[in-house]
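Newbie here. two chains, one complex. Structure please?
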Amino acid sequence: MAEIAVQEASEKKNLTAIFDDLISPLKRNPFANKLWIRFLILICVAGLFAYGYQLMTGLGATAMRDYSSWGLYISNFVFLIAVSLVGSLVSAILKLSGQTWATPLTRFSEIIAVAAVSFAGLSIIVDMGRPDRVLNILLHGRFSSPIVWDIIVVNTYLAISLILLYLPLIPDIAILRDRYTEAPKWQRKLYKTLSLGWTGHDEQYKLLHKAIRMMMIIIMPVAFAIHTVTSWLFGVNNRTGWDSTIFGPYFVAGAFMVGAAAVIVLMYILRRTQKLDNYITLFHFDKMGKLLVLTSLVYLYFNINEYLVPGYKMKSLDTGHLLELFSGDESPLFYGVQIFGMIIPIILLIFKPMRAPLPLFFISIAVVIGAWLKRYLIVIPTLLNPTFPIQNVPENFHHYFPTAVELTITAGLTAGTLLVITLFLRIFPIVPMWEVAHEEGYENIEKKATEK
Amino acid sequence: MNTPIEKNKNPRRDFLKILGLAVGAAGTVGGASLLNSCTNETGEPGEKVKLLTQDGKLVEVDAKSMTLASDVENEELLTEYQKRGREGIPGKKWVMVIDLARCQNARKCMAACNSAHELRPEMHHINVLEMQNSEDTAPYYMPKPCYHCDNPPCTKVCPVNATFKRKDGIVLIDNERCIGCRFCIAACPYSARMFNWFAPDLTEEQKQRTYDIELNVPQKKGTITKCLFSADRLRVGKLPYCVSACPNGVYYFGDKNEDSVTNGTSGETVRFSDLIRDNAGYTMHEEFGTKPQVFYLPAKDRRVPFEQAKKQTENNENA
């Protein structure tokens, strides 16, 4: 254990103080928060209008054309799927490997996972030419298509993530039901229903721990599957840049990197706004910073393999695509992503002062933006470098740059993801109260709560 | 008989019927009325129409539940087209041979194809490309239709079986089923497929025609289209549109099972295997393992030099 942790955890927290600290953010509703929610709703509405326009005009409202036939929407889909993978990283892999420090972060990662994977699904609907026929996948689904596999694993992952979000919430909801009595009526009713009559009996805890553990084990193969299958949407095609056997692990590694960064960003914001300094400590930032270095190094290793080896061979079919990345139109973006989204963050994060909350927050934002642009670099340049030359088509078929419609819809989807997280935070505590209390050595927390 | 006069005799059954109708409608159209502006509604819900039955009774019918006789006919025709379109023409295995030595970039094939399939001008089921394999080799013109591969990557990735390979070798698209995910465009290494990014430029009359899967007409917004080997022409014993339109004898088309192909310009029929063997015929990028069914004859001993053909094309474009 690092010294910081010992220092900060040295004084034992009072049980009532724990509950007060973690419930009080639900009671406060500052003006800034109201403004933020309205702002997100406004952007969502703008996104809906843009989508309505796209439905009327057709996908021609986007910058996609016959060569760049996938664009920003598919990049967003891959990005959101990547972000959602953090749910399994923090709440399953870290917990099962005995990293108890991650306990206060499990709910962060699960709500990010649930919100991101839901909106990943919407990104696909937005990209469809005929969304009115979406049920055809059920009516005429053909199992040979990786899209069908993707739909199955994405929905499975969403279901398991929801369960893994909900199960550890139950004791907390019971605490809220008993202690947060000044909540609005509908909210009290919600707590009462969702707490499922939790009393904190030993047998209940036994069952809960067993169920959580089981879900943590189940979610891991599904988490790997969701991103591997997503990578196969590209990897199964005979296209330069996608025709790769390491696409599965390459995507999974990238997902762990961006997921860790996303959790850090949320940690920083909530620590500031919800005054969680005693729960999300410097120790957590330090640990998450180290985790981000580790995942970034793994991803960097895959990047070197993915670009250096084909670059060394320069096969005729790959040449156009690779030269576009290395020295052509896409090279500023390519080097920008590699340097600012990976290499510089790795170098900085090796030094301990850089793993303090504020520097780590900015580094993580750079990683998240870099990861998003990276998805764009994976999808579009490949499509614009087909086997045969692009000829006899209008000038705009040769390029791709998202239109205002695409950008507005993307903003709407992003705002929607953030809105889900924000609204969740209005109703539920972000740090698992019962787990913190148990780790502080309190038992029978429900009884004590009622005694008081 | 379940006429409206007898209604409310069995409210539970009525309810179940309504429920069944609602569920069924949701299943088939899936919110289409919300998203799709071209739904064919006969009247407002609740609007009643008086009709005389065959046995002389006057009945009132909900206008919404009525169907026009012509709609029923269209429905039957569509079912027939879809059935024969998915089965293909028995006993055939279609194949195309393109003689690159003869192509002068006249582009009559492209024009004939675009007009038959009612494509927007920027869409090309068949595209004549200017090719050069390396710096030291001579440039040439290469018409590029869909290769109707025997191991098609596009049909494998389709999640709804909207694109499929028939027994006679043709790869078709069902634009009544296509969901517009464009995975097939990504999967095709030959860029043979295109998408209706906008609504096609069609007259009201053109839109009303029954969809023929073998012609892929009328085109629909938000669906895929591509070369169909003119399956509708083959059904009536004619050569494809592009093959018949070529003035320079570039195209041979025929049946691999009969081992014979016919030149679309001269009408001359030759043995397919001889033609390929004697002229060193080949297919494009065999390394993909796609097994294309469109063969090329090399661009040697050209009728018209490339530069001259290029000049002609430019003159035609300027004129």
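Moderator note: The first strand of chain B starts at residue 48 and ends at 52. Residues 252 and 267 of chain B are 9 Å apart (CA to CA). Thread marked as resolved.
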